């Protein structure tokens, strides 16, 4: 799945398949300017920062079990969000500090470091890089990912795929070759 935020005409948090199909709103109320987004891949939770409401909130992948992790002036100007173990990590663009927030109680907020110009934060950890034995976009004997001449996108699950073409090309009737 692909998760993303939008604060155009109607602010929301959405999800879709990797090929863009099955687009679903998972949060569309009591939300103003959702920006940074982070996933708890193990427990299947979506966290986001709302910079207008000065809040960090969470829902499950279906948009249920919503609650506010933390809200208020102490978390103004947040950008970037990452989840690791019991904490959320974010950057305060006003003070240029990296913050650590306990994602279970929201009261334990600590400044960890000062940075010159950070706008994003990521945590790289082996447990978040799940191994897949095989998937629909593996390279075929002819060197084509998933049998697609240009781009292979996983679809509703790791066994299904959709072929797409680079700009200026159109997908042929075989659903794999770009012309």
Automatic annotation (TrEMBL):
Q: Give the matching InterPro entries.
A: 6-blade_b-propeller_TolB-like, Cueball_EGF_LRP_Nidogen, LDLR_classB_rpt
Among the Pfam families in the record, one is: FXa_inhibition
Name the Gene Ontology molecular function terms of this record.
Wnt receptor activity; Wnt-protein binding
Show me the LDL-receptor class B repeat boundaries.
Answer: 1-43, 44-87
User: Single GO cellular component annotation?
Assistant: plasma membrane
A GO BP term, please? canonical Wnt signaling pathway
Q: Which domain of life is it from?
A: Eukaryota
- Tell me which Gene3D superfamilies the record gives: TolB, C-terminal domain
Q: Span of the secretion signal?
A: none
What PANTHER family does the database record attribute to this sequence? EGF-LIKE DOMAIN-CONTAINING PROTEIN, VITELLOGENIN RECEPTOR-LIKE PROTEIN-RELATED-RELATED
State the name under which the record lists this protein. Answer: LRP1B protein
| The encoding gene | Lrp1b_1
